[in-house]
Known about the structure:
This is HECT-type E3 ubiquitin transferase. This protein has a two-stranded antiparallel ribbon with strand order 1-2. Strands 3-4 form a two-stranded antiparallel sheet. By secondary structure, the chain is α+β, with helices and mostly antiparallel strands. Helices cover 35% and strands 11% of the residues.
Amino acid sequence: MTTERSKRYPPSHGIEPCTSCLPGRRINHFTRKGISLRLTIVWEQYDRNIGHIIAKAIFDNKYMDCYFTRSFYKHILGVPVRYMDMESVDSQFYKSLVMLLENDIHEWDLGLIFSLDAFEFGENKVIELIPNGSTTIVTNDE
Length: 142
């Protein structure tokens, strides 16, 4: 059985979306053994060039047939990005976040911890979001 992900990123190619990147860059960043740094530099140059094109269009009062997410506009304006901005990107994920924030998660016993399970280059990896995140249980406390 093949999934949509395995069609786009076959394991034999050794290239897949980066799960350890910043959330906003996950779409653009890919890792491959031995060339991750080079790809990062290429994507940074790509982002910079796109930024120059957008800036030139704005400067010349030209309309562009594209739109940006709310979080991108906030980055441009220097306004802090909050979890509510996730609604425009992924409404289902946003609803899940709101449900977790509005309810007592101890009642459900979800077993949430501060780590991510990632499958990279045929290996399962645990990425800790905070120190000792794989053993720290998520609670309602801040």
